[in-house]
Amino acid sequence: MLILVMCNIVSKEASAQLSIHPMLGGSLNTVHDFDRTSSSISSILGFHGGVGVDIPLGDLVSIEPILRFNQKGFGVSSTEDMGGGDVVTTNMSFRYSTMELPIMFNFNTEVGNNKLVYSVGPYIGYAVAVREILTQTDGINTVSYDTKNMDDFMQNMVDNGMNRLDYGIILGARYEISNFTVGLNGAMSIQNFNGEFSSNANKHLNLQMTIGYKIELN
Length: 218
Fold this sequence. Notes:
Porin, 2 helices, 11 strands
């Protein structure tokens, strides 16, 4: 039975081609189950780009490992009444730059001469940089800082329990017109990225728009 299944897959691969799939796009990023109950969580924009290898397992199914750079993060705002009519407003954003390896299982459907491809799969990622931007004002004076050029900032985060390793699940779909692709993916982290910072779950959420081009290999 196994031999018959393998022969069936191989016979179908004759009409499906291996392809290289470079891609890039933008994303809307936030977190869920965040434990700062006195703060307001907001979304921030990010960028992602990489390349996949679409390996056909038949006419209708393929597997696509992807190596990509991905920006994640979130915004936090809070207001504190200091008394005497003084109110301090704080706005922060955190950006996590990660290298990721999604393994996507693609299911192809035909729409006229084009394709609608549904995808699902796990990913694993590793944070290579973290950046915090803060602005604080009392209405008269404003203080701000950016950790972009602070070489030890990420190490301090790790020393205090931040998890650089991230993993989760991706669901999405893309439309293929000839060799061009336009896709929309949603990703949810399973890992608590704050580690020892919190006993609650602090996990990344991403909504990504992607454009790409498939280069077929003979």
